[in-house]
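REQUEST FORM: STRUCTURE PREDICTION
Request ID: SP-0412
Submitted by: Lab K.M.
Chain count: 1
Length (residues): 155
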Amino acid sequence: MEAYKLILSVYAAVVSTVVFVWRIYEFYFDRVGKLNLAMEHRFKVFIPPNSFGSSYDFPNERYLNLRIVNTGRSKMYISNILLKTDNGLGEKKFVAFSSLNKIQPLPLQLEANQPYDYEIPYAPIPDLKAKGIKRVKALVIDSNGKQYSTKWFGL
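STATUS: Completed
RESULT:
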């Protein structure tokens, strides 16, 4: 009977220690924000009202979309969004694009599990291709200075 109590108390001590260590890990390391980044080509087609069935040539707009998702448990602030080029523009390796159609305020607050779509206009991309740039990588910097990046993305 005494051996049974000893085994049970050792088991309880091991389980409580594991739970304690797990709680410390969650408190210190799991609270850190994490961003998930994905980049893709997208098109917008503008369809005027009452134009269905007509032979109207609808204008469309091509752009690059950077989807940023906060996968952490706490809110995060994004302070800067840049594109890094594969071989640079002279001495410059980073390019910042902004759209004149949509205001994209920075710093940007992202709640837990909140996605944000950052639209990069496609108009300057042919000029980059003409200068020999074939790939870009999106770089997102949070308010703590931590950098997140996508994989290389072909233009």
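NOTES: The chain has a mean pLDDT of 81.
Reviewed by: T.R.
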